[in-house]
Protein: UPF0223 protein CYL18_11520
Organism: Pradoshia eiseniae
Amino acid sequence: MDYQYPIDFTWKTEEIVQVISFFQGIEKAYEKGIYREELMALYKDFKRIVPSIAEEKKVCGEFEEVSGYSSYRAMQKAKKCADGELVKMKG
């Protein structure tokens, strides 16, 4: 990983950790797969910190720009999977 995660410096340390954990879950979905329920739990925590759709698009867009990984596409796939299924994105 040769990039920095998008961070809002008004977030508390634990909020930054949760946002980074969500993005690491997205990376995992692209790199080796992540179970649906794990990714959904990470997303739920992420949405507590980034509740507005506009801010989510901004932060996730910044992440996609630096990483090449689409949070939107990964979450769309996760929503279609059943619990216990692995969310595995194609490069």
User: Anything to note?
Assistant: The helical segments are 13-31, 36-49, 53-67, 71-80. The beta strands are 34-35, 86-87. The two ends are 15 Å apart (CA to CA). The CA atoms of residues 35 and 86 lie 4 Å apart.
